[in-house]
Specification:
Elements lengths: L6 E4 L7 E3 L3 E3 L3 E4 L5 H15 L5 H10 L21 H4 L6 H4 L4 E2 L4 H9 L5 H8 L17 E5 L7 E12 L5 E8 L4 E6 L2 E4 L5 E11 L6 E10 L5 E10 L6
Parallel strand pairs: 6-13
Antiparallel strand pairs: 1-4, 2-3, 5-7, 7-11, 8-10, 8-12, 9-11, 12-13
Helix pairs in contact: 1-2
The protein binds 2-acetamido-2-deoxy-beta-D-glucopyranose (5 copies).
Length: 258
Amino acid sequence: MALGVLILAAFHPHLTAARIGRNIDLATDYNLLSGTSMACPHISMAAALLKASYPDWSPAAIQSALVTTANPLDNTNRPIREQDGSVASPLGIGSGHVDPNQALDPGLVYDASVQDLVNLVCSMNFTRNQTLTIIRSSYNCSNPTSDLNYPSFVALIRAAEIRRTLTRRFRRRVTNVRNGAATYKFTVEVPVNTTAVVEPQTLVFRKKNETKRYSLTIRYKADIEIQHREGAVIWTDQTGKYRVRSPIMVSAAADNFE
Ligand SMILES: *[C@@H]1O[C@H](CO)[C@@H](O)[C@H](O)[C@H]1NC(C)=O
Ligand SMILES: *[C@@H]1O[C@H](CO)[C@@H](O)[C@H](O)[C@H]1NC(C)=O
Ligand SMILES: *[C@@H]1O[C@H](CO)[C@@H](O)[C@H](O)[C@H]1NC(C)=O
Ligand SMILES: *[C@@H]1O[C@H](CO)[C@@H](O)[C@H](O)[C@H]1NC(C)=O
Ligand SMILES: *[C@@H]1O[C@H](CO)[C@@H](O)[C@H](O)[C@H]1NC(C)=O
């Protein structure tokens, strides 16, 4: 989530950006606009700054740094709220308000390669031509998986699963992007009526660029009454300086909202 207020962004040069009097229309290549859509150039700016600082980071690493360092609290240190006053869920605010300075030093990143993204597309059971339309080059679908190495977790409840107790297991890899060794321990903000198990409980990195794996297993009852419940997995290093936070969302799937 980002501010969408007075963001300098590219603008259609043939549209009126400002008017003098009644009949003098002024055009421009760039304009300062406000609104929901202006969060996009704001986030793009933050991503561009990260890419300038770390030219070898992948798009996934940049996204991870922005997500895991975002702030889920407002300027009174309470959870960000919706306009109606209810606490906003990750479906509304993602992992929170973007903090570009924190993102410059995220501690750990969830990286993903092009092949990881291909594996995700492969899991969607598209036809060969549909898959080619997305991937746009020859591809290898030998290892399809919807469990992308992504810095958040979504467990969906499908209509056919109502009242059952469900277990979902997510596998993740995190890479140490700081110089030197680091030890991280997890905390979990467990969604209500859910259990969460993280394995292993400590990640020990001996040097920069080292990657460690962990799994998150969540178990929950598929109650129809609850449209969504949220939590988070937070990896904190031994100094307490780095907090790598990923939202967890247990939510009714789209086929359940009908
Ligand atoms: C794709 O097909 C496999 C095998 O039939 C099935 O297990 C899986 O749920 C399907 N995935 C989607 C996203 O429909
Ligand atoms: C897939 O795309 C190719 C090239 O555009 C076309 O010749 C072929 O008929 C398509 N196949 C299907 C099953 O639509
Ligand atoms: C596809 O990838 C798998 C490894 O995931 C590899 O073993 C296999 O040889 C690859 N196939 C082709 C045609 O490249
Ligand atoms: C939690 O589970 C209890 C017992 O099934 C139920 O009464 C309650 O409504 C649930 N609360 C939420 C927020 O899911
Ligand atoms: C870490 O990985 C990046 C990209 O693969 C590389 O440019 C950099 O030299 C590596 N740093 C160390 C300390 O290994």
